[in-house]
Design goal:
The chain has about 350 residues and is α/β, with parallel strands linked by helices. The chain folds into two domains: about 140 residues, HUPs (Rossmann fold), CATH 3.40.50; about 140 residues, Rossmann fold, CATH 3.40.50. It is built from nine helices and ten strands.
Length: about 350
């Protein structure tokens, strides 16, 4: 065994202490540097997460994001002037905030009625014709007249020829029992096009509606066109300054609240969950009043989100106090189209 001298031991201890001090200093510098980087990263994260102005609140609006739908509204031979004005008010109310595309109102006459009228109802553009209609004050309206022996075919053909973005039609729930699910023309348009098609039944003036009830069937959020429909609900609520209640058929209300908030336009909504359509009707019987409007999101038969109850929902809703209702059939086959309705902040 070899013993170390006291001098050697002392030298070894001094060297060890120096090494530890230097190592400790380097470790501390690394920690400080990491902390500074974390603070910068945290600050950067906070900045990126801070609320940005919505594109619709900015004075400089990107034209590529400015949504200006070409709305087509067929006016049927048996429609009264009151019904026409009510549905037109609805179409004007969901026109988005930017753009100059007019609502296209097509008055359809039967061949016999057209022959009796002669040339007095020639096609025309009538921007001032509905000047007394509050919802039309800031909306351009092109009004044409045509004759037809086959109204459903005329409507579908016009939709195709005019590059329509959205179809709005008056809807009488009783028509569902006349050999067609939603009415002959509505059925034909839904079968021949993939466009969003809104079937509207208004009892009383739209401007008097103080609350919107939005019914969201199960799984319909997986269908393309869902965000577009929510955007139009928000636009309508914003125009009417109406409150919103969203009814879902699943317990995960927060899921739908999140989806609702992803869509442009700041609108506060309440959310409620029911277990069945019968429970929904019972709740609407208790919760609604005449100055309210029930909107049901819908899809074409056998598509994602389809529910057989959609065939009779309009008729069932005539028994609740809020007698005004609409079916919002979602756009099909254009999943990328929905992106423009999502927030960019």
């Amino acid at each position: 065994m070899t013993l170390s001298s006291p001098l050697v031991v002392a030298s070894t201890l001094v060297i060890s202490v120096v090494v530890l001090v230097v190592a400790g200093f380097r470790i501390q510098r690394q920690r400080d540097s990491h902390a500074d980087g974390s603070e910068e990263s945290s600050e950067s994260t906070l900045r990126s997460a801070s609320p940005q102005l919505s594109i619709f609140d900015s004075e400089d609006v990107d034209d590529a994001r400015a949504i200006d739908p070409r709305i087509f509204l067929p006016d049927f031979p048996d429609a009264t002037d009151d019904v026409t004005e009510q549905v037109l008010a609805f179409a004007c109310s969901i026109k988005h905030r930017y753009g100059d595309e007019p609502v296209h109102l097509l008055r359809i006459q039967s061949t016999e009625a057209r022959a009796g009228a002669g040339d007095s109802d020639a096609d025309s553009s009538t921007p001032g014709q509905f000047s007394g209609l509050e919802a039309a004050e800031n909306t351009a309206i092109n009004s044409d007249t045509t004759e037809s022996e086959d109204v459903p075919a005329t409507v579908a053909q016009t939709v195709d020829e005019t590059e329509t973005d959205l179809v709005v039609m008056g809807h009488e729930p009783s028509h569902a029992s006349e050999g067609a699910t939603f009415g002959r023309t509505a059925d034909h348009v839904l079968a021949e096009t993939s466009l969003p098609t809104y079937l509207v039944h208004l009892d009383g003036a739209l401007s008097e509606k103080e609350r919107l009830h939005v019914v969201v069937p199960q799984h319909i959020d997986h269908h393309e066109g869902f965000y577009e429909a929510i955007y139009n609900v928000k636009q309508l609520a914003s125009t009417l300054e109406a409150s919103v209640t969203v009814w879902v058929f699943e317990q995960n209300v927060q899921h739908y609240r999140t989806l609702f908030d992803l869509v442009e336009i700041d609108v506060v909504a309440e959310f409620a969950s029911v277990r069945s359509w019968d429970e929904l009707y019972a709740e609407l019987e208790l919760e609604t009043v005449p100055a309210e409007f029930v909107i049901t999101l819908a899809v074409r038969s056998e598509k994602i989100g389809w529910d057989p109850e959609l065939e009779s929902v309009s008729t069932r809703l005539t028994d609740v106090p809020a007698r005004s209702s609409a079916l919002f059939f979602l756009r099909e086959d254009e999943p990328e189209h929905d992106d423009r309705f999502l927030r960019t902040d």
